[in-house]
Prior knowledge:
Blueprint: E1 2-9, H1 13-24, E2 29-33, H2 39-43, H3 46-63, H4 79-103, E3 107-111, E4 115-118, E5 121-124, E6 127-136, E7 140-142, E8 170-174, H5 178-189, E9 193-197, H6 209-222, E10 225-227, E11 232-238, E12 241-246, E13 253-257, E14 259-262, E15 266-268, E16 301-303, H7 314-330, E17 343-345, E18 350-355, H8 358-363, E19 368-374, H9 379-383, E20 390-396, E21 402-409, H10 412-424, H11 429-434, H12 444-450
Parallel strand pairs: 1-2, 1-6, 2-3, 6-16, 8-9, 8-14, 9-10
Antiparallel strand pairs: 4-5, 5-6, 7-15, 11-12, 12-13, 17-18, 18-21, 19-20, 20-21
Helix pairs in contact: 1-7, 3-4, 3-5
Amino acid sequence: MKEYDLIVIGGGTAGMNLTYPLAEQGWKVAVVESEYLGGTCINRGCIPSKTLISSARVMQTVRDAHKLGVVAEPPKADWPEMVRRKDKLVGKIRGRGYKNVERNENITLYEGRAAFSGPKSIEVNGETLTAAKIVLASGSRTAVPPVPGLDQMDYLTSTSVMEMKELPASMLILGGGIIALEFSQLFTRLGVEVTILQRGDRLAPNLDPEISAEIQRLLEEEGVKVATDTNITSINREEGMVTAADEGGKGPVRYTAEQILVATGRRPNSDWLDLDKAGIATDQRGYIEVDRAFRTGAEGIWAIGDLIGGMMFTHRAAHDAALLVRHFTKGEDIDRGDRLIPFAIFTEPEIAGVGMDEAAAEKAGYEIKNHHFPFRFQGRARAMEKYDGFIKMTVNQIDGKILGTYMIGPEAGELIHELIAAIRFGATAYDLQDMIHVHPTLSEAITNTAGMG
């Protein structure tokens, strides 16, 4: 049995952002990772997908060049080269992670799948490890719905779709959330005929309804076919084609394509850990139950990142780790519920948000005023030929404080950060009106929105 100060199960964003600062302070840390250091974000999510999205954006920019008086040849997608570029970048970032671990004598990396063998002991590759503190950060994987026939075929996931050797002529996407939005636009721009099969009545149902409607309109304008209110009862592969049978409200419909991408969400990797041997409880969906300080029901064991559900973003996982570091090293009381967690979706135009939307603010009892400003009236956006999208700001009518802001428009993922700071420090819409923004910039749209109430 090998003893450590800390065992971290999972070498992704949450696990490594916890490991590095503690190891630098002299803690002996064992990290257990079953695949690659870097986790989903570096290897299978954020970095590789946004690298491919960037290639598709360039293709669309070339197609639209005539709108700005530029004559360009119609672009062609070199998918193998795009994948090679993606793999090269991922390899560099991943390699840096392994070098950082090798350089630190306080970190021991175990490559394998870990599981509890007792209340405070972990088994990996036949070895038993123990520590005073154990943190679970083993992430999540694609959630596959129990559709008859799906488990009998070689379907694509958000990971394997980026490893395809060649582009298919057509693709079905099962699901209508973030993954479906980003990949549908990506592959449509590369020349693939894409159909989204969404169970609900609109895409991205967790978003503001107006934003959901806008992104669906824009995707459909680019050629994405969207089927809502579907009830997929079976999926089969016949003569090299995938067929999905829909018995939804529109009556029996059959959708056919060369490939199908499963984009119906994520599930936690908690079922790999033998949690019952440590007395750790999960909810009905498998997410580990923790208190507001990430403590599980077992003494000396915490869980962070995707394992605990909620907003499953890389930046939130990193912040989970940062809070836990402060608790471990400074004894600070931490509260995972007391923070603003922004998000961004990297379609074009981008979607981003932070704080309470209109429905959440009303439910919380606020008397609100909605500020709304479309990008088509914003000078820099018009100069860039970016007319689509808008900003919605939810403001407390009593004191003018900004409760939340949601936007769809050019560079929304960057623009949202000014609103994060504004809400974090209690700024009002009047404060934003008084802040002088450089002209002409996209950020002027924030001042314009603040003044629209």
